[in-house]
Every structure is written in structure tokens, then in C-alpha cells.
Specification:
Layout lengths: L1 H15 L32 H4 L9
Length: 61
């Protein structure tokens, strides 16, 4: 029950700060109790070449 309360507190605090979209994924790659945020730069930009700065077709000088 404690973990559920922690998740509710996290969601409430994010909503209080104005976060309007929240997507939660669980992962075994992170240590228990740790969290990682990904910022959304648009409708479908998270992890895209534009968001990461790794453009595959950019010609370097």
C-alpha cells in the first residue's frame, strides 16, 4: 500500500506543477525506487533525432 501512496503523491505533485500529460512505464533496468523523466518536446518528439540532436541525415562540415 505504501508504494501506491508514493505513486499517487508523485502524480499529484506533477499535476500541481502544471504537467498536463503523464505517461508511466515500469522498468527492471532502473534500481527500485528510482525514477527517470523524459521531457516531451511536442506531440511525438521524445527520443526522436530532433529531440536527441542525433540527426541521421545531417551533413557535417
Amino acid at each position: 500500500m505504501e508504494q501506491i501512496d508514493e505513486v499517487i503523491q508523485m502524480l499529484d505533485s506533477m499535476a500541481d506543477t502544471g504537467v498536463s500529460r503523464i505517461k508511466i512505464e515500469t522498468s527492471n533496468a532502473l534500481e527500485e525506487g528510482k525514477k527517470k523523466k523524459a521531457y516531451h518536446h511536442g506531440r511525438c518528439d521524445v527520443g526522436s533525432p530532433f529531440a536527441t540532436g542525433k540527426l541521421f541525415d545531417l551533413e557535417e562540415e
